[in-house]
Design brief:
alpha+beta; binds the ligand Nc1nc2c(c(=O)[nH]1)N=C([C@H](O)[C@@H](O)CO)CN2; elongated; single chain; isomerase activity; isomerase; GTP Cyclohydrolase I, domain 2
Length: 126
């Protein structure tokens, strides 16, 4: 039971180029974001069946998230994170998700800049 509660599928630093930012200069040139996802999923089922139909397909998730993020301009990386969480819930039925969106070029003096959110869909039932 404990393993089901902590099972997840992880995608680290998925690189996505998109229009993102609040300043005028950011509205005309793409910048690179890096998205890291921890997605709650019962891996015991595909672990026993060896069937991709039982698994959370990380290739399909990566393609969907890349298309969603690059699909329209946004201002805040917070909105990118929130939108990804909603997409993963609605399109892939993940149990919970931790989403980190990094924008390394945002502050020249900083090694990295990121926001991170956690959404537990089982708890809300929505
Ligand atoms: N919390 C946030 N702060 C800021 C954001 C953001 O998305 N979330 N964005 C900017 C600018 O777009 C910045 O990245 C330009 O370098 C400033 N602060």
């Amino acid at each position: 039971m404990e393993s089901k509660m902590t099972d997840c599928v992880i995608i680290e630093d998925l690189a996505i180029d998109t229009i993102i930012g609040v300043f005028d200069w950011e509205k005309t040139q793409q910048q690179r974001l890096y998205v890291t996802l921890h997605m709650g999923w019962d891996n015991s089922i595909p672990g026993n069946s060896d069937d991709i139909a039982d698994a959370l397909d990380y290739d399909a998730v990566s393609r969907h998230v890349s298309a969603w993020v690059s699909g329209q301009p946004r201002e805040l990386i917070e909105q990118v994170a929130e939108g990804i969480a909603t997409e993963l819930h609605q399109q892939f039925a993940v149990l919970w998700v931790k989403v980190k969106v990094a924008k390394p070029g945002a502050v020249a003096q900083a090694k990295n800049i990121a926001v991170e959110i956690y959404r537990d869909f089982a708890a809300t039932g929505k």
